[in-house]
């Protein structure tokens, strides 16, 4: 099998890249180790930055998002029983975000790819990337019980942190930057309408809490818990009681309870792999970088990566110049590090470390008061949350 771009992984990054290349007249093949049902029901991110929304619309994948997604013009910060709303459009010249689950993005892109895109092979396990430093890289993969080879001009690894693409990059001159946090998120899905019409980020002495949503009838909520927590160790009433404590305010706001349909624990870490390219192998999304979920940046960073690659390859096709492809890693990493910085700031602002001192507690409250009282500080948060420009 032969194609121009071999794409490993059919998450939102790989699927969107295939769509962008198709629209540019560049052929590709997508290899995904899981089956279609798994990809379409894998619960992940749910906040789309303004730039991601614009890209999906331009790619022809925005119709259902615009019909069913939930536009959000701000978030609420809670601390010390106070409430402060950050108004995104007023601070960012009209930018906002969209609540639309990653599962739905994948469903939309899969439908488009199967309708008029290139081959999308489910249950096709990529085994190795070979010849990345040559002009003809290859992906060995297993499909329908036998091994095959996908011959490419370029390979893009969108196969996540545990995938095989990054392993094909030599140890030298690789640099890895990472940080593990001493806490995690206990997340739930609940069949109850959200108790607030925008996301609520709460800093509390007992730990962080987040009120989010998946739809007008399904709530998504999170609690900061110790690292290594077993989701099954919390019963439903304990979860609701703790959420109520951490969202407490001085007004009459109440948290609505409902049946919990899913529980999971998400570890918190930051990770960046430099460079994001070796020869004709390019890394995108979690294959190259991970952010703690506090800043809602993971999916959006992946979108930025594949947009950068698609634009660079289209530029080469139209002009013959490889300048933008050669700058891929540097271009992406500028945005990646800004998102890492923003996610780190949000995490350290709102989470209470296990060994936090009274001084550190007061510093968090002082930072929150600064955001609430300074348009400049509030604008910095709003610009980071709604998204940094694509390179």
TrEMBL record:
Entry annotated with the keyword Cytoplasm: no
Residue stretches making up the FAD-binding domain: 2-343
Pfam family, one: FAD_binding_3
GO molecular function, one term: FAD binding
Keywords: FAD, Flavoprotein, Oxidoreductase
Enzyme class: oxidoreductase
EC number: 1.14.13.2
NCBIfam families assigned to the protein according to its UniProt record, in alphabetical order: PRK08243.1
Name of the protein this chain belongs to: p-hydroxybenzoate 3-monooxygenase
The species this protein was found in: Streptomyces canus
């Amino acid at each position: 099998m032969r194609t121009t771009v071999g794409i490993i992984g059919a998450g939102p990054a790989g699927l969107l890249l295939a769509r962008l290349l198709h629209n540019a007249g560049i052929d590709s093949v997508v290899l995904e180790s899981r089956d279609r049902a798994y990809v379409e029901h894998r619960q992940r991110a749910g906040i789309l930055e303004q730039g991601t929304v614009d890209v999906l619309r331009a790619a022809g994948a925005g119709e259902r998002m615009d019909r069913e997604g939930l536009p959000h013009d701000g978030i609420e910060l809670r601390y010390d029983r106070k409430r402060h709303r950050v108004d995104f459009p007023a601070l960012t010249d009209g930018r906002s975000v969209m609540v639309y689950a990653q599962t739905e993005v994948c469903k939309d892109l899969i439908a488009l790819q199967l309708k008029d895109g290139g081959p999308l092979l489910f249950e096709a396990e990529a085994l190795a990337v070979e010849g990345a430093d040559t002009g003809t890289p290859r992906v060995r993969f297993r499909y329908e019980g036998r091994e095959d080879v996908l011959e490419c001009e370029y390979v893009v690894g969108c196969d996540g942190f545990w995938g095989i693409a990054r392993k094909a990059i030599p140890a030298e001159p690789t640099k890895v930057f990472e940080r593990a946090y001493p806490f995690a998120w206990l997340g739930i899905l609940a069949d109850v309408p959200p108790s607030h019409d925008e996301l609520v980020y709460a800093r509390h002495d007992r730990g962080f809490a987040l009120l989010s949503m998946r739809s007008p009838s399904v709530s998504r909520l999170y609690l900061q818990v110790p690292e290594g927590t077993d989701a099954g160790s919390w019963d439903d009433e304990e979860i609701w009681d703790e959420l109520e404590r951490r969202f407490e305010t001085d007004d009459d706001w109440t948290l609505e309870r409902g049946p919990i349909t899913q529980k999971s624990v998400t570890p918190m870490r930051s990770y960046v792999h430099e460079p994001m390219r070796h020869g004709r192998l390019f890394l995108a999304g979690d294959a190259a970088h991970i952010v703690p979920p506090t800043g809602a940046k993971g999916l959006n960073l992946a979108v930025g990566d594949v947009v950068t690659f698609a634009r660079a390859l289209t530029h080469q096709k139209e002009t013959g110049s490889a300048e933008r492809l050669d700058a891929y890693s540097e271009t992406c990493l500028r945005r990646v590090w800004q998102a890492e910085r923003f996610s780190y700031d949000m995490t350290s602002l709102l989470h209470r470390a296990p060994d936090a001192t009274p001084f550190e507690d007061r510093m968090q409250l002082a930072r929150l008061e600064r955001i609430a009282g300074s348009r400049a500080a509030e604008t910095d948060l709003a610009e980071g949350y709604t998204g940094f420009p694509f390179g």
